[in-house]
Design brief:
Length: 260
């Protein structure tokens, strides 16, 4: 009887121990499952982060690719333009080379031309009315001296000669006045000279009592009627000095010669 009770107690203890062991084993298994699930979740999150990063990098690369493509298209257009410019420059270089080859020939031809132009201008001044004669001859002499200088190019020499011609042309298109000293009735008198282009050259003494006109045929100054032209010359001098508005002036002008 005691033996049966002991066995029952032992059996009960064994069952209790087995149940306790089973509970502990189940808890360990659940923890393991939860731990594995957490690891998978962490791994999934890490994978998602890598995917997001790769997607972001891919988007950035795509934008860079588009930008580079636009730059390439722009460079192609720029290169085509440069090719056209280069072709034009090569054409200009070819023309310059041909011009350089002809420089020596041109310079040999232009130097005698310049000298002939200066000689012709000097003769023209000598035959022209003697207005501002000292100034005109001084300008001519200065340019003639430059013709022998080696440090001045042929182009600059030619420019200076053309400038003299322009000055002479301007004299014929304007009215001007200046002071001078002339021989009046055997005496040196200070006068006011009135130049009306190349139409008339007149002079009047400072006291306005004597009025003269230059006669090209006589190549000298001749006295004119002071009563008739005195006031006209005075008005002309005021116009030349911009002290009066331009107006019609009655001047002693030689009549044009009849054509032969």
């Amino acid at each position: 009887m005691k033996t049966k009770r002991f066995m029952a107690v032992a059996l009960t203890t064994a069952l209790s121990a087995g149940a306790l062991y089973g509970s502990v084993a189940t808890a360990d298994t659940l923890d393991n499952v939860l731990a594995v699930g957490q690891q998978k979740t962490s791994a999934a999150q890490a994978s998602q982060k890598r995917i997001d990063k790769i997607a972001e990098e891919t988007t950035g690369l795509l934008q860079d690719f588009k930008v580079v493509n636009k730059e390439i298209d722009g460079l192609r257009v720029y290169n085509r333009q440069l090719e056209k410019q280069l072709a034009n420059q090569l054409s200009v270089i070819k023309d310059l080379e041909e011009s350089i080859d002809n420089v020596t020939v041109i310079e040999r031809q232009i130097q005698p031309l310049i000298l002939r132009m200066l000689d012709g201008l000097e003769q023209f001044i000598e035959l022209d009315a003697p207005f501002k004669l000292d100034e005109r001859l001084a300008n001519l002499e200065g340019v003639k001296k430059n013709m022998d200088r080696s440090d001045i190019t042929a182009a600059e020499k030619f420019r200076q000669v053309l400038e003299l011609y322009n000055f002479e042309a301007e004299y014929g298109r304007k009215i001007s006045s200046y002071g001078d000293t002339l021989n009046v009735n055997g005496q040196e008198r200070e006068v006011n000279v009135l130049q009306i282009g190349r139409i008339a050259l007149l002079a009047q003494t400072k006291d306005s009592k004597i009025t003269m006109a230059y006669d090209k045929e006589q190549q000298g100054w001749v006295e004119v009627d002071s009563g008739e032209y005195r006031r006209a010359v005075l008005q002309g001098l005021k116009i030349a000095k911009q002290q009066a508005t331009q107006d019609i002036m009655n001047m002693p002008i030689p009549a044009p010669e009849a054509a032969q």
